[in-house]
Amino acid sequence: SMGNTVGRIGNGPRILLYDSHIDTVGIGNPEEWDWDPFIGKVEKGRFYARGACDEKGSTPPMIYGLAIAKQLGLLDGWTAYYFGNMEEWCDGIAPHALVEHEGIRPDFVVIGEPTKMQVYRGHKGRVEIEVISRGRSAHAASNHLGDNAIYKVLPLIEGVSKLEPELGDDPFLGHGKITVSDMSISTPSINAVPDLAKVYIDRRVTFGETAEGAIAQVRALASQELLDKGDITVEMMKYADPSYTGFVFPVDKYFPAWAMDESHPLVQAGLEATQIIGLPQHPAGKWNFSTNGIYWMGKAGIPSIGFGPGEEETAHTTQDSVLLADVIKATEFYAILPALIR
Questions:
Q1: Is 147 annotated as catalytic?
Q2: How far is residue 55's CA from residue 115's CA, in Å, rounded to a whole number?
């Protein structure tokens, strides 16, 4: 319904799903690119293009890996899905709809977001917060007749800039983060007092932090008088935009932190796969950014790991790229993994 691509192979009792999103963020300012981001280029074995790293680099090896696994008998006992999903700008909404609306619930998930060809087992969560400040407009020449919505919210913005040291911490996932990420103003003209200001906050939550607690921390930065009057509101954002097919699946913009135990059979299978195919050995790591794992493991409790070519540091940048040798090598990982999950 949402417009995702779902491929199925096998009909065994255990269900394995490979997840990669097939849409991308925009290109931003085209003049900042040294090449056409929609055509790309190959240079010294690296493919550069919008979406190469985030996340189309994992799509071909996932599909070919499952086909090879089928040919070699490595999918015996499995039903395997390739899930090429949309709505990248709202983490987890595509798998949420797949499970709750389409009725496909896997037993294990592998997320193809870039991991530098290492196994990842979690990341911080996220809460998107909207602060609305309401004032009264007036001509700037008579500004004493107005009530500037920007001025009302400035103390809160300053408070956010100083809040991070007080946020939670976890030895694996790391410290919580908070960022004023956007702002919009409503004003009749540039010669008028603004009557509305909206501030958007990206709050990265670690273990031990909740959405309610994160919102309360921001709310505490506002004047209680303004809160009581309704001049300032602090709320979790919601997502109800239609997909390109017109499908709407409303969700709160809360994305919980999650982590798999290193000893879990899926994590161990992933680490064993990297050893078998000759990759350098590392403990299972974590992403700094957010993925669909916030739904798979964070909300639905479905065991999940990450493995994919590319470095997350190049995602959403003009250096979006992936080593083609890693794309090929990743095919081996995706092919042998099903036989190693015990």
A1: no
A2: 11
- For the stretch 186-221, pLDDT in tens is 999 999 999 999 999 999 999 999 999 999 999 999
Question: Residue 318: what pLDDT?
Answer: 94
Are 138 and 89 within one domain? no
First to last CA, the chain: 33
Q: How far apart are CA 106 and CA 81, in angstroms?
A: 8
Query: Which CATH number fits the domain that encloses residue 216?
Result: 3.30.70.360
Q: Are 295 and 254 in contact (CB under 8 A)?
A: no
Domain that holds residue 42: 5-123+257-340
Write the CA distances from 272 to 19, 85, 269, integer angstroms. Answer: 20, 27, 5
At 86 the pLDDT is: 86
Residue 20, CA distances (Å) to 5, 10, 87, 330, 338 in order: 10, 19, 11, 13, 17
The reply to whether the predicted model has a pTM over 0.90 is yes
Q: Is 212 assigned a catalytic role?
A: no
pLDDT confidence band for 88 (50 / 70 / 90): confident
Residue 231 and residue 269 in one domain:
no
In the chain, where does DSSP find H-type helix? 59-71, 93-100, 149-163, 211-219, 224-229, 265-276, 293-296, 324-340
CATH classification at residue 110: 3.40.630.10
Task: Tell me whether strands 196-205 and 108-111 are parallel, antiparallel or unpaired.
Answer: unpaired
Select which of 19, 23, 55, 312 is catalytic: 23
Does one domain contain both 131 and 218? yes
Does the pLDDT value for residue 87 go beyond 90?
no
Domain match, 293 and 326 both: yes
Catalytic residue among 19, 54, 55, 87: 87
Overall size of the chain counted in residues: 342
pLDDT score recorded for residue 320: 94
